[in-house]
Amino acid sequence: MVSVFLVGAGPGDPDLLTVKALRLLREADVVLHDSLVGEKILELVSNGARLVDVGKRCGKTSAAQAEICRLLVREAQAGRRVVRLKGGDPMVFGRATEEMDALREAGIAFEVVPGITAATAAASALQISLTRREVARSVHFLTGHGAAGGLPEHDWVALARGGGTLAVYMGAQTLPGLAAHLIEAGMAPEMPALAVESAALPGQRVLRGTLGALPRLLAAAAPSGPVLLLIGQALEDDAVAQGALAAAVAG
């Protein structure tokens, strides 16, 4: 019998939870949740359930991954129905592999329940297609933060020449280096680029610019919420539309 559920909480809007995720939150005995999971979603957890914050935030004190795995195994072996609630989708930069390995090793049955990931949440909120025909035939999900800190070693030339849309998670702090690498690899500094803070939430903030200018814009904005970066030609229509809107208002 399944006793542990790795559940995606989506971007934070309770209306964007799956029906299955909502049911599991109401049936759980204990919920181990990320720090980025908002209060409105945690309020949906059954009153009798225990909430445990095991969040991992860049640059802040957080639970070690080994400790999270140990808690999952311990709670399941105690006969409790466990929900491991992760922001976004568990399988997209959600550290699910380590937790699934620990559960398998302990012989504990588990299930993964997908959630809406930040890239698609941002695209929907901004009404931008990440795969606009004839412009972007692919989407690349990248992490901007390596396991050892700093910028990961991506194949910058392949990314610059791929012609798809880049969706960069956890890249706010490393954006200057990321932009420099892409430009050095051949991507135009004028490539449309966006930074979306708190995608699909009431406090969503969007910075529109170019690959060359976005690091300066983001530093000046000093975001406090999670930031997703979008880079690519598919964003050009959005930039044009915003310019037309601004011109109409000015006129």
What's the order of the H and E elements? Answer: EHEHEHEHEHEHEHEEHEH
Anisotropy-based shape: elongated
**Main beta-sheet strand count, sense and barrel state:** 5 strands, parallel
Stretches where pLDDT is under 50 for at least 5 consecutive residues are 239-251
| Average pLDDT reading | 91
Radius of gyration of CA atoms, rounded to a whole number: 20 Å
Tell me the number of strands. Answer: 10
Strands in their spatial order, largest beta sheet: 3-2-4-1-5
Q: Give the strand content.
A: 15-25%
Number of helical elements: 9
Residues in helix, %: 25-40%
Question: Could you tell me how far the N terminus lies from the C terminus, measured between alpha carbons in angstroms?
Answer: 65 Å
SS content category: alpha/beta
Characterize the structure shown.
- This protein has helices at residues 19-27, 39-42, 65-77, 96-105, 118-126, 156-161, 175-184, 214-221, 236-250; strands at 4-8, 30-33, 50-53, 82-86, 110-113, 139-143, 165-169, 192-197, 205-210, 227-231.
- With 251 residues, it is α/β, with parallel strands linked by helices.
- The strands form two sheets. A five-stranded parallel sheet has the order 3-2-4-1-5, with helices on both faces. Strands 6-7-10-8-9 form a five-stranded mixed sheet, with helices on both faces.
- Strand 2 (30-33), helix 2 and strand 3 (50-53) form a beta-alpha-beta unit.
- The longest helix is centred in the C-terminal third of the chain and has 15 residues, at 236-250.
- The radius of gyration is 20 Å and the shape is elongated.
